[in-house]
């Protein structure tokens, strides 16, 4: 597992387009954090989702996953290494972009809550990326889902993934529980849809 984690972190570090995208998005997240901590929490969620899409889905899309499966036949171990890697990178992203929020907000409650729930978003996003396996489909679908289903129709009140994330970031314990259920469900589907060995 340690070798797999190192290899995934190395692969993520060497994909220049991913790091450029993450850096630009991180700058945007930090800038929005100056305006409002809730905006930053949303950008931290989008960042975790994007990190999963850029790393795991591209692995499938560019067929480099086949080489990884040849080297490591246990696909469940590969999936969990990818999930852990995504969690680590997403948490570092949230900490670095949230510095502006932490400096501005005296008690740092939204900052702390968001750092607790970002790993759950990373697990959810990594599982979805492993199911969808196309970064562009995943990002476009996520945007449409968030804007139309959760934003316009649900008005961010329904217990759907992004709404639950935002509620958990605001300190709602039930929102965190709902979001954990979404993440565990997505991870279960990802395990069931792993390609046969």
Summarize this entry quickly.
The protein is mostly helical and 197 residues long.
Description of the molecule:
By secondary structure, the protein is mainly alpha-helical. Helix content is 85%, strand content 0%. It has ten helices and no strands. It has helices at 2-14, 16-35, 37-61, 64-71, 75-97, 99-104, 109-132, 135-153, 161-169, 173-192. Helix 2 packs across helix 5 (75-97) and helix 7 (109-132) packs antiparallel against helix 9. The protein is globular and about 50 Å long.
Mean pLDDT figure: 84
Beta strand count: 0
What percentage of the residues does DSSP assign to strands (E)?
A: under 5%
Q: In percent, how helical is the residue content?
A: over 70%
How many helices does DSSP assign?
Answer: 10
Question: Uncertain regions: pLDDT < 50 for 5+ in a row?
Answer: none
Q: Write down the overall geometry.
A: globular
- Main sheet attributes: strand count, strand direction, barrel closure: none
SSE succession = HHHHHHHHHH
Our Rg estimate from Cα atoms comes to 16 Å
Separation of the first and last Cα atoms: 19 Å
From the helix content, strand content and strand pairing, which structural class follows?
mainly alpha
Provide the descriptors you would attach to this structure in a database record.
single chain, 197 residues, mainly alpha
Chart the SSEs and their pairings:
Blueprint: H1 2-14, H2 16-35, H3 37-61, H4 64-71, H5 75-97, H6 99-104, H7 109-132, H8 135-153, H9 161-169, H10 173-192
Helix pairs in contact: 1-5, 2-3, 2-5, 3-5, 3-7, 3-8, 3-9, 5-7, 7-9, 7-10, 9-10
């Amino acid at each position: 597992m340690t070798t797999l984690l190192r290899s995934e972190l190395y692969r993520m570090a060497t994909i220049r387009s991913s790091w450029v995208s993450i850096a630009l998005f991180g700058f945007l997240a930090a800038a929005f954090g100056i305006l409002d901590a809730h905006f930053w929490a949303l950008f931290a969620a989008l960042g975790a989702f994007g990190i999963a899409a850029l790393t795991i889905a591209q692995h499938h899309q560019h067929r480099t996953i086949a080489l990884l499966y040849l080297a490591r036949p246990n696909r469940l171990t590969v999936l969990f290494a990818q999930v852990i890697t995504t969690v680590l990178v997403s948490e570092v992203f949230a900490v670095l972009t949230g510095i502006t929020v932490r400096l501005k907000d005296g008690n740092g409650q939204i900052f702390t809550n968001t750092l607790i729930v970002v790993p759950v978003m990373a697990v959810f996003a990594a599982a979805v990326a492993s199911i969808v396996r196309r970064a562009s489909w995943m990002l476009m679908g996520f945007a449409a889902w968030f804007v139309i289903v959760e934003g316009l129709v649900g008005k961010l009140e329904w217990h759907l993934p992004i709404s639950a994330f935002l509620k958990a970031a605001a300190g709602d314990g039930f929102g965190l529980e709902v979001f954990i259920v979404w993440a565990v469900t997505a991870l279960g589907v990802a395990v069931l849809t792993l390609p046969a060995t």
